[in-house]
Amino acid sequence: MRLAILSDIHGNIEAFKEVLRDVTAQNVQGCYFLGDAISYGPEPDRVLRLLQRLNIPCVLGNHELALIHSYARNYFNFTTRHHFAQAEKLISLKSKKFISTWPAWRKEQGMILVHGCPPDSATRYLFELDQEQLFRVFSAMDFPVAFVGHTHELEIIEQFDHGIMHKKLTQGIHLVQGDKALINVGSVGQPRDGDNRAKYIIWEPEKKSIEVCFVDYDILKSAAGILNRGFSKIYAQRLW
Predict the structure, then answer these.
(1) Is the pLDDT of residue 100 over 90?
(2) What are the backbone angles phi and psi of residue 235, rounded to the nearest 5°?
(3) What is the pTM (predicted TM-score) of this model?
(4) pLDDT at res. 212
(5) For residues 34 and 149, is the Cβ–Cβ distance under 8 A?
(6) What sign does the CA torsion over 87, 95, 220, 198 have?
(7) How many domains does the chain divide into?
(8) Sign of dihedral through CA atoms 17, 204, 28, 63?
(9) What domain range is 67 assigned to?
(10) ∠ CA 98-34-37 to the nearest 5 degrees?
(11) Where residue 86 sits, what CATH number does that domain have?
(12) Rounded to a whole number, what is the largest CA-CA distance in the chain?
């Protein structure tokens, strides 16, 4: 079985369409989305409509959580709160109702799916956890693998008998060797790992294999869309 796992599209419809085109060519049996479909990019509603039309199972990102519960906007800095008010106006009532159906986490096909940190946090970053906290997360996991997003950076954290190991993920195939693993799938719409291509992964549970996929898309068109919306130019600059 081959399962595509995506995260952090952030309104970047150009990146999302190219990733979907790539996923279609990969002969996958399922596709899942780990949250943050909205904010920063120019087309949040188009992204949401496409997720809904394709019936892709989703979990709440911190930006969707902030859309549903205003208290969650306190996690944002001042600049992001101002932008979020702009982006919210672009999201239709139908799409807001769609987001309201997303759970904080899912357990599917022997894996845990959550935006930030297992078991159910959309806001907590993995890099905030020290070794002891990571051990507690692993101990509480009833499945051997959990997939997350949120940081926009590809990474695998594995638990072994002798301890915990962190490793950045690069393009290509990687094998999960630890007893349990936390896998960050990177970002479709706003990578922050030094490579501006869209990222997603394909998981093959029988082989314990992760294939990290990099996809080119029209960055110039996405950046122009951000500026045309009147969003801060920093969100366009980040794409490069």
Answers:
(1) yes
(2) -70, -30
(3) 0.97
(4) 98
(5) yes
(6) positive
(7) 1
(8) negative
(9) 3-237
(10) 55
(11) 3.60.21.10
(12) 53
